[in-house]
Amino acid sequence: MVTPVRVIIALCLVAPFVAMLWVGSYAKTDPAFIGIPFFYWYQMLWVLISTALTVLAHRLWLRDQRGRRTPDGGAAK
């Protein structure tokens, strides 16, 4: 079943792939950050962003699954 929460989870998991596969958006050297060309620090920044988005997706998934439990403790069908 597609719910708004599951759409948000999917977007959190797809965003890093889209950002990294769109190489033309970051295939440049400027602006440099502490001497590191943009091409490299942008990718390293996405490592941190991807981690945060994956944690967020996981927490949303757990909350979604808890909300689907039936009163007797079983999973809703």
From TrEMBL:
Q: Which Pfam families match?
A: DUF3311
| Alphabetical list of InterPro entries matching this protein | DUF3311
Positions the record marks as coiled coil are none
The UniProt keyword set, sorted, is: Membrane, Transmembrane, Transmembrane helix
TM region positions: 7-27, 39-62
| Record-linked PANTHER family | BSL5891 PROTEIN (PTHR40034)
Protein name in UniProt? Integral membrane protein
Organism per entry? Streptomyces collinus (strain DSM 40733 / Tue 365)
